[in-house]
Amino acid sequence: MIPNIFHFVWFLPESGGKPFSLFHYVAIKSAYEINKPDKIYIYNNRPPDTEWWHKLNGIVEVVKTEPPEEIFGNKLYHLAHKADVTRIKVLKETGGIYMDLDTICKKPFTPLLNYKFVMGKQGRFRKMGLGNSVMLSEKNAEFLSIWIEEYKTFRSKGHDKYWGEHSIQRPEKLSKKNPELIHIEPYDSFQYPIYYSFCLKKLFVKNLDFKNAYCHHLWENGSYELYLKDLTVEEIKTKDTTYNKLARKFL
Predict the structure, then answer these.
(1) Domain range holding 32?
(2) Contacts of 142 (CB under 8 A, 6+ apart)
(3) How confident is the prediction for the chain on average, in pLDDT?
(4) Are the beta carbons of 237 and 248 closer than 8 angstroms?
(5) Is 214 contained in some domain?
């Protein structure tokens, strides 16, 4: 049984980095309102000083966590890969539901809580792998134990051709070898619309309803400058888009 506990990771670099913003707050608030979790943890190395971070008081428990520098002797160069390793270890130790902070919940995960471990397909037509932006796991899930061992061959140095090798592609390969240890949700449960620019418009320009979605991934790397950086409460309240109509109830 997967516990109704939520985990988020928010690592800040030594200097710079994006501020903790409205859409990050909505990610956590939507999980809180939709799923009624027993606990919400956020793993953080340096607490940001923003309005939206402070609004989480009473909703989340902040766990002081330093980003790991290596795994099995392999250096972790990028903050994203440090977060990848952290989420796997947290889920293995505690169980629960991990979500990226560029997500928004639409309906409860309750029907999925009886599985051992859950991921969703990334991509509708192309075989991209399994998305690790949303994962559900029982404590000490065997799939996670096998997956973490795969990091003995980790070799990415950042945004290179190995960027998603261990986080996206490797779990798909492992799922074929160990199908009894994982439940795979369709492409439109967690990860759709996908990150292509014309698909992002389905979230931030058009007003659509994706009936099969438990949540949406906002793909911050592609949508931040175009849609999320300057997003305001007023815009969410007054502009009818797929994202805004979901988000306004959590303000």
Answers:
(1) 5-194
(2) 116, 117, 178, 181
(3) 96
(4) yes
(5) no
